[in-house]
Design a protein that fits this description.
CATH topology of the largest domain: v583 fold
Radius of gyration: 36 Å
Largest sheet: 6 strands, parallel
Distance between the termini: 42 Å
Structural class: alpha/beta
CATH architecture of the largest domain: Alpha-Beta Complex
C-alpha cells in the first residue's frame, strides 16, 4: 500500500533527503520509499517510480513529501519517527558545531557579509539561474553546483556576468579551488603555481590530486561547466578565466581541460592560448594529439597533463610509472574477456572509454546514452553519475548502492575478466567508500573463486593524503582485499587492458614551433583578478556542507538557508527579478519614500461626530459602510448580515428583524466599503449615518480618516449581534458618548495627538489589536479631567467615565482611524510595493499597494486560529472579517506581538518565545523599523515598518494578524480570539499587476 505524508513548509536540501531516503528504505517492510520536495520535476520522478498519489500532487515546492510502499500501515509511524530523529540529529549536530551564520534571505545575507564576492549555488536547477542572476546583480561571482539549468539561461547569466566583469562557474560545476579553498566536491590540495580551468569536475579532481601527490600544488582551479565550450555558450567563462589566469602572478603553468569544444569555440580558445605568455597545457578528452608546440602543450590523458605541468614547474621530467601486473597471470586476447568499468564521474569514465577504444581499435559513440560511455562486445564503461542514475537518488560518490548492483550483474556475465572502478575522496564524497564497497568486492571475489573463475578487480583512488578519508587508508583496504590499486586512472585502465591480453600505445610527441594567431586584446577584469588573489567571501545558497568546508579554510561565509522563492513559481520569480532590476523607477527608493511619509505623519484626534457629517455618501439615502473589499448583502457572511440588521434597526429603517431583512434583501440599502470613503470599521465594519465616528487628521498631509467608537465586548454589533441591548447601546453612544467626547476634544486647542499615546502604551505592553488597555487608559487620562468639568448630566458623566474605564479595547478604533490616516497619506506616493491596506469581508481578503492606488487584490479569506471561549470551537467560527488589519499594515497588532507578551497565549501564540519569533519573522517582509514606537523588550527596536509585497511573495511569509473570532451565526457575538494570515495570492496578484503596469510580460 502507498502511504503519503506531507510536511508543509519543511524545506530540506535534495542531498540530505537522498541520504534520508536510503536510511528509511532499510526499514523492514518498506518495499519502496522516496523522500523529496514536491517540486514539479520531483513529482514526475515520483510518477516514474510508481509512487504518485493525489496527496503528493496537492503539495507545493516548499513541502517535503514522504511516499512509501509499505506492507503494514503501522509502518508509517515508524517511518515518521525515523524521519524526525534524522532531522533532530542533524539539528543537534549543527547546533554543537561552530558553523556559518545562517540567514533566510538575500537581504540578510548581504547585511551579514557586505563584502561577499562569491555565491555558491546548490539548489534545484529550475531556480538556480534566477538566484545566479540575483547574485550577479549584487556584484558576486557565481559557482553553480546546480544542474538542469537550460542552455538559454546559461547563456543569459554568463553574458550578464561577462558584462559586469564577473564569472559564472557552471552550471553543473562540481569542483573548484579558489585561493586554495575547496568549493563543492573537491579534494584537500596543497596550494601551488599550477592553474587549472576545466569543464570537468572529476577531471579537475584527478589532475589536482595527481599534482598534489607529486609534491606540487594548485592555488586556483576553475570549473566552467560542461556546456561552456559549446557553440551556444561560446566559451564565455573559459575565455574570461584565461585572461584572468594570465594576469594572476601566482600562476606559472596553466592547464585547460574539456571535452572537445565546438570548432568555432576551439578556434577562439586556441587563438587566445597561442598568445598566452606562460606555459599552457591543453587536454581535450577523446582527442589524440601528435605533437606539442613551444610552451603550448597538447596532451592525451589526465596523467600526462598533470605530470607535464609538474615537470614544467620544476624544470625536470616527471615520468609515468610502469604498470605493475604479472602478465603471466593475465588473460590471453583470444579468450575475449571483457572489462566492466563503473565510474562515479563522467570524465574518468570518458578517459577509460577513450583508452579502451584504442586498445580495441573501435570508435566510441560521440554522445553517451544512459550513462554508457562505451558498450561493445561485452565491454562496458558507465558513468554512474549521469542524470539517469541520480534523479531522485544519491550520487555514486556518496552512495555505493548502484555500483554494487552493477558489479553483481557483471559477475553473472562469464565473459567478465575485469571489474574496474574509481574511488573518489574529498569533500562531499562518502566518508569511506572503499570500506562501503569492500564487502561486495570480497563476496564477488570469493564467488568467482568458488566457480573456479579468474577475476581481476582494478581500482584507482582519486585523492590526496590530506583528504579526511585518508588516501593511504583507502588504498590499503582495497589492496588487502586483493584489488589492484593504481596511482592514476590512466594506469588503472592500462592495467585492466593488459589484464585481458590487450595493449595500446601513446605516440611520442615532438615539440614544434608555436603558431601565434592574431587576436584582439581585451581588458582583463579586475574583479576576476581579485577573485583569484583573495580568499573568497562566500554566500552559500544550498548545501550546508559546502559552508562547513569553506569555513574550515578560514573564509568568511554566510549560510543562506534557501527555500524556493515565491513558492517555486518561476513566473513569479521572474516578476520579482523584473521589479528588482527595473531601471525607469527605483522601486526601493519609492518604497523608502513611502515609509518616510509613514514615519513623518502626525495623526491627531480632532473630533467625534456623526458619520454622515464627514462622509457625504451616507447622506444619499439608505447607505451602510462595511469592512473589507466590495461585497453585496447576499454574499456577506451571516454575522455581517446581522450587523446590517442591527444598523437598520438603529437608523429606524425597520421596526423589527423581519422588516430589516426584507429591506436588505430587496436591495433597498446601498453598500460601500469603509475604505472607499476614508473610513475603517472593526469586524463587520458596519457604519451608518448616525453612528458617531472618531475624526483623525494627519496634520502632515491634511487628510482625515474615520472609525466608529468601540462598543466594548460581548454581544456587540461588530460581531453580528443586533438585539435591543445592542441597539440601545448604539443609541446611547450616539446621544451621550459621542457628544461628550466631542466636547472634551474640542476644548483642546489642536486636538489630541495620537503618537505620544501609542509610544507610551507600546512600552507598557500594548500591541494595539488584541491588547489596548494601556492606550485606552492613556486616552482616559487625557479625557477624564476635561469630562469632569463639562456642563452635563452627572449620570451621563458617570456612565461615560465608567464605559471608558471598563472598555479595555476602546483605543483599538482610534488606532484603526490613525492607521487609515497614516497609510492613506502613504498612498500619495504612486510607486512602490508597500502594502497600504489589508482588510477582509468574511469572504474575501483584500490588499492595496502603493504603486497600484485604489485597486484591490483579493483572495479567499481564512478562518482565524486561536483560543475559544468555553463551549465553542473551530466549527463555530466565522471566516475572518474587519478593517482592523490596518493596524498590522501600520506595523502594530500581531506585527508587534513581542510588545504584548501578556496577550500571546490569548491569541494562541504560545508564549514569549513564540511572540519573539512572530515579530522577528515579520521583519523578513518589512523594509525598516519605525523609530517613533520603540519596544523595550525587543532590545528597544522600533516596530516593523512597511510591508513589502515583493518580500511577502518571495519568501512565502504572509503578515500575521491578531483578530477576534465571531460566531458564524449572527447574534452570538465574539467566541474567541486568535491570529489569521492573508492568502498569499493577494500579494502575488498585486506584484504581477504592478509589474505589468511597468511593462513586464512573460
Amino acid at each position: 500500500m502507498l502511504k503519503t505524508i506531507v510536511k508543509q513548509g519543511s524545506y530540506h536540501d535534495s542531498v540530505v533527503l537522498m541520504l534520508l531516503t536510503n536510511q528509511i528504505s532499510a526499514i523492514k517492510g518498506v518495499k519502496k520509499v522516496s523522500i523529496m520536495m514536491a517540486t514539479p520535476a520531483n513529482k514526475d520522478i515520483y510518477k516514474q517510480s510508481g509512487l504518485d498519489t493525489e496527496k503528493l500532487q496537492s503539495a507545493t515546492a516548499n513541502d517535503m513529501v514522504v511516499v512509501a510502499d509499505i506492507e503494514d500501515e503501522t509502518l508509517s509511524d515508524t517511518i515518521m519517527t525515523e524521519v524526525e530523529e534524522f532531522f533532530k540529529k542533524q539539528s543537534t549536530r549543527n547546533s554543537k558545531e561552530e558553523g556559518a551564520v545562517s540567514v533566510k534571505s538575500w537581504e540578510r545575507a548581504l547585511e551579514t557579509l557586505p563584502q561577499a564576492n562569491l555565491a555558491v549555488i546548490s539548489i534545484p536547477g529550475a531556480y538556480a539561474a534566477l538566484e545566479a542572476e540575483r547574485a550577479l546583480d549584487e556584484g558576486l561571482n557565481v559557482f553553480m553546483f546546480s544542474d538542469n539549468v537550460t542552455v538559454d539561461d546559461e547563456i543569459k547569466i554568463k553574458q550578464k556576468a561577462h558584462s559586469k566583469g564577473l564569472s559564472v562557474m557552471g552550471p553543473d560545476c562540481g569542483t573548484g579551488i579558489i585561493q586554495g579553498v575547496p568549493i563543492a566536491f573537491t579534494n584537500h590540495v596543497a596550494p601551488g603555481p599550477i592553474g587549472i580551468i576545466g569543464a570537468s569536475g572529476t577531471g579537475i579532481q584527478e589532475l589536482t590530486t595527481i599534482i598534489d601527490r607529486l609534491g606540487a600544488g594548485v592555488t586556483n582551479a576553475i570549473g566552467t561547466g560542461g556546456r561552456d565550450l559549446s557553440t551556444y555558450v561560446g566559451g564565455i567563462t573559459m575565455l574570461d578565466m584565461i585572461e584572468a589566469m594570465e594576469s594572476d602572478v601566482s600562476v606559472k603553468v596553466l592547464i585547460i581541460i574539456s571535452k572537445p569544444p565546438a570548432k568555432a569555440v576551439r578556434d577562439k580558445i586556441y587563438n587566445r592560448l597561442s598568445n598566452f605568455t606562460k606555459p599552457v597545457i591543453t587536454l581535450f578528452l577523446g582527442e589524440k594529439p601528435e605533437y606539442h608546440e613551444e610552451n603550448f602543450y597538447h596532451t592525451y590523458t589526465l596523467d600526462e597533463a598533470a605530470r607535464l605541468a609538474v615537470s614544467l614547474v620544476r624544470g625536470e621530467e616527471i615520468k609515468t610509472p610502469e604498470v605493475i601486473i604479472d602478465r603471466s597471470k593475465c588473460f590471453k586476447a583470444e579468450e575475449k574477456k571483457t572489462i566492466k568499468a563503473y565510474y562515479s564521474g563522467g570524465t574518468l569514465a570518458g578517459e577509460a572509454a577513450m583508452l579502451m577504444k584504442d586498445a580495441l581499435n573501435i570508435q566510441v559513440p560521440p554522445e553517451k546514452v544512459d550513462g554508457f560511455m562505451l558498450t561493445t562486445a561485452g565491454h562496458v564503461v558507465v558513468d554512474l553519475g549521469d542524470d539517469v542514475y541520480t534523479q531522485g537518488k544519491p550520487h555514486p560518490m556518496i552512495d555505493p548502492a548502484k555500483r554494487i548492483e552493477c558489479m553483481k550483474e557483471a559477475i553473472d556475465d562469464e565473459s567478465t575478466g575485469v571489474i574496474l572502478l574509481d574511488i573518489m575522496l574529498g569533500y562531499g564524497s562518502h566518508e569511506d567508500m572503499a570500506g562501503a564497497l569492500l564487502p561486495s568486492i570480497i563476496e564477488l571475489r570469493d564467488k568467482a573463486k568458488a566457480e573456479n573463475r579468474k577475476l581481476f578487480f582494478v581500482a584507482t583512488v582519486c585523492g590526496t593524503r590530506s583528504d579526511f578519508q585518508g588516501y593511504d587508508k583507502a588504498v590499503n583496504k582495497l589492496k588487502n582485499a586483493g584489488v589492484i590499486v593504481c596511482e592514476t586512472n590512466k594506469l588503472a585502465v592500462h592495467t585492466a587492458i593488459l589484464a585481458i591480453g590487450l595493449d595500446f600505445q601513446e605516440p611520442e610527441k615532438k615539440i614544434l614551433p608555436k603558431t601565434v594567431s592574431e587576436i584582439e586584446k581585451v581588458e582583463t577584469s579586475k574583479k576576476l583578478i581579485q577573485m583569484l588573489s583573495e580568499k573568497p567571501k562566500v554566500i552559500n545558497i544550498g548545501l550546508k556542507s559546502f559552508s562547513d568546508v569553506i569555513e574550515q579554510f578560514g573564509c568568511e561565509v554566510v549560510q543562506y538557508d534557501w527555500m524556493p522563492p515565491a513558492g517555486g513559481d518561476v513566473k513569479l520569480i521572474k516578476t520579482l527579478n523584473f521589479l528588482r532590476n527595473y531601471e525607469s523607477i527605483d522601486i526601493d527608493d519609492a518604497n523608502r519614500k513611502v515609509i518616510e511619509k509613514i514615519v513623518a505623519t502626525q495623526p491627531v484626534i480632532m473630533d467625534v461626530v456623526p458619520a454622515k457629517s464627514v462622509i457625504k455618501e451616507l447622506n444619499e439615502g439608505k447607505v451602510i459602510l462595511h469592512a473589507g473589499p466590495p461585497i453585496d448583502y447576499k454574499s456577506m457572511p451571516n454575522p455581517m448580515q446581522g450587523s446590517c440588521i442591527g444598523a437598520s434597526l438603529f437608523e429606524g429603517w425597520a421596526e423589527n428583524e423581519t422588516d430589516a431583512r426584507n429591506l436588505l434583501e430587496a436591495g433597498e440599502v446601498k453598500f460601500i466599503p469603509c475604505h472607499h470613503v476614508n473610513a475603517v470599521g472593526p469586524m463587520g465594519g458596519i457604519t451608518s449615518a448616525n453612528m458617531p465616528v472618531f475624526v483623525v487628521k494627519n496634520m502632515t498631509d491634511g487628510n482625515e480618516a474615520y472609525c466608529t467608537l468601540n462598543e466594548g465586548i460581548g454581544k456587540v454589533l461588530r460581531f453580528g449581534a443586533y438585539s435591543h441591548e445592542v441597539v440601545d447601546r448604539l443609541t446611547w453612544m450616539k446621544n451621550v458618548l459621542g457628544p461628550t467626547l466631542s466636547k472634551a476634544i474640542k476644548t483642546m486647542d489642536n486636538g489630541l495627538s495620537v503618537n505620544p499615546m501609542i509610544a507610551k502604551a507600546i512600552a507598557m505592553g500594548d500591541e494595539f489589536h488584541q491588547r489596548n488597555i494601556a492606550a485606552s487608559l492613556a486616552f482616559l487620562k487625557e479625557m477624564s479631567p476635561i469630562i469632569t468639568k463639562l456642563n452635563m448630566d452627572d449620570k451621563d458623566r458617570y456612565d461615560v467615565m465608567k464605559f471608558l474605564a471598563d472598555t479595555d479595547q476602546f483605543f483599538l478604533n482610534i488606532m484603526m482611524a490613525t492607521g487609515k490616516a497614516v497609510m492613506d497619506a502613504a498612498r500619495m506616493i504612486k510607486d512602490g510595493t508597500v502594502v497600504t491596506a489589508m482588510c477582509r469581508n468574511g469572504v474575501e481578503f483584500g490588499i492595496r499597494i502603493s504603486g497600484m492606488g485604489d485597486q484591490w487584490f483579493t483572495g479567499q479569506v481564512n478562518t482565524p486560529q486561536g483560543l475559544y471561549f468555553t463551549g465553542y470551537d473551530g466549527e463555530d467560527a466565522c471566516p475572518d472579517m474587519g478593517d482592523s488589519a490596518i493596524t498590522e499594515t501600520f506595523g502594530v497588532g500581531a506585527m508587534a506581538m513581542i510588545a504584548a507578551p501578556a496577550v500571546t497565549r490569548f491569541v494562541g501564540a504560545g508564549g514569549y518565545e513564540d511572540a519573539l519569533r512572530t515579530s522577528t519573522d515579520m521583519t523578513e517582509i518589512t523594509i525598516d523599523r519605525n523609530p517613533n514606537f520603540i519596544i523595550p523588550n525587543w532590545n528597544f527596536q522600533g516596530i516593523c515598518l512597511g510591508i513589502d509585497a515583493r518580500l511577502v511573495v518571495e519568501k512565502g511569509i504572509t503578515p500575521v494578524i491578531n483578530t477576534g473570532i465571531a460566531h458564524k451565526i449572527a447574534g452570538y457575538g465574539q467566541i474567541g480570539a486568535g491570529t489569521v494570515h492573508p492568502p498569499i495570492e493577494c500579494f502575488q496578484k498585486a506584484i504581477e499587476a504592478y509589474a505589468e503596469k511597468l511593462g513586464f510580460s512573460i
